[in-house]
Write a structure and sequence with these properties.
CATH class: Mainly Alpha
CATH architecture: Orthogonal Bundle
Number of strands: 4
Order of helices and strands: HHHHHHHHEHEEHHHHEHHHH
Radius of gyration: 22 Å
Largest sheet: 2 strands, antiparallel
Distance between the termini: 15 Å
Number of helices: 17
Shape: globular
Structural class: mainly alpha
Low-confidence stretches: 347-352
């Protein structure tokens, strides 16, 4: 019994384990109920193609929420960056145009994030209000600049930028989308930033208690400005991945990102109160969100059930996360075992 308890304690130390377990169970259930779809590799390649833009936004938002802040402007940055890239690409018919558009889009994302940071850290506007205003403003600016029209950039498929960021790389005989590789690389990088770098420590200290962080010598204002700037760059990168993949810019792109992104972050175990964030949990959480709707549709269940099932899976992920994070997994396991076999004594009292 002690070995079992020790194993449970060891498993609880693995970051993102409960979310990964939920994802594995989800795929297992989908394989059983929709074997024709989920026993082939194509559906998983589809997830690797469509999930990364939301995942990238969720990784950046994890840092922001860990710092006790919120950013609601990233969907507008997704649209703005897509427009800037598409406009530069169509305006300048030159080999350097894709790279120029890419860099300019990232720079504009950084600028929007920097302005958000100034509003929050310097002026003292609550982040929810500052970024909500930015969301409306930059979406409106993007629509005005684009005259409400979409831009077709199908010729971008011949550029090296397209190949590098959303091309396909063969692993064995399976063509894996490059955006999935970039999202994985970003997740690894941000994990080290949050858990092994001074900037990550400052983010967690600020999220736990900003006043204590100031006493400890952390420049809270500068850190918050950097944080929102980084979020702006990451959101712009997500917009570029989306635009390059679909080969078109449309004015409302990114408008459906807000709720799935936030759901991925909170399912992943990041504390809404700040001070605790999980990049690994967010990574798996994004694939749970990205797989649910397609999975439910593939089972031929009525579309009316989609949101209900999504709510059940999300709730299960959050509950499992709480049980593990608070160290109650062994107690919960013992209670379940006692309910299943009531004739056996509760291990809590064994040895007394």
């Amino acid at each position: 019994m002690k070995k079992g308890t020790s194993l449970l304690k060891f498993l609880t130390r693995i970051e993102g384990l409960p979310v990964a377990a939920v994802l594995a169970v989800l795929y297992g259930v989908l394989i059983i109920v929709a074997p024709r779809v989920f026993t082939g590799f194509r559906i998983y390649m589809s997830f690797l193609q469509t999930v990364p833009p939301v995942l990238v936004c969720a990784l950046g938002l994890t840092l922001v929420i860990t710092a006790g802040e919120i950013d609601l402007s990233f969907p507008a940055i997704v649209a703005l960056s897509g427009f800037i890239f598409a406009w530069v690409f169509k305006k300048f018919d030159a080999p350097w145009a894709p790279w120029a558009g890419f860099i300019l889009a990232l720079a504009c994302g950084a600028l929007v994030g920097y302005i958000n940071g100034l509003l929050v850290a310097k002026i003292g506007v609550p982040s929810i209000m500052a970024t909500l205003a930015a969301q409306f403003f930059w979406y409106g600016a993007t629509i005005l600049l684009a005259n409400g029209l979409q831009l077709n950039i199908k010729d971008v498929t011949t550029s090296i930028v397209h190949t590098i960021f959303v091309g396909r790389i063969n692993i064995g005989q399976v063509p894996v989308p490059m955006q999935a590789i970039w999202a994985l690389g970003l997740a690894i990088f941000l994990w080290f930033i949050l858990n092994r770098h001074k900037f990550g420590e400052e983010i967690m200290f600020i999220g736990d208690n900003a006043n204590v962080a100031r006493v400890m010598g952390i420049d809270v204002v500068a850190t918050r400005i950097k944080l929102f700037t980084v979020m702006g760059v990451i959101a712009a990168f997500a917009g570029l991945l989306l635009t390059l993949e679909i080969n078109v810019f449309f004015p409302t792109q990114g408008s459906g990102f807000l709720l799935p992104t936030m759901a991925a972050v909170f399912i992943g175990g990041t504390s809404i109160a700040g001070g605790l964030g999980s990049i690994t949990g967010t990574f798996f959480g994004a694939y749970i969100i990205g797989s649910l709707e397609a999975g439910v549709v593939a089972t031929t269940i009525s579309g009316y059930w989609v949101q209900l099932i999504e709510g059940i899976v999300m709730g299960a992920s959050v509950v499992l996360n709480i049980i593990i994070e608070e160290g109650h997994i062994a107690t919960t396991f013992n209670r379940i075992r006692h309910w299943v076999r009531p004739d056996q004594p509760n291990t809590k009292y064994e040895g007394n």
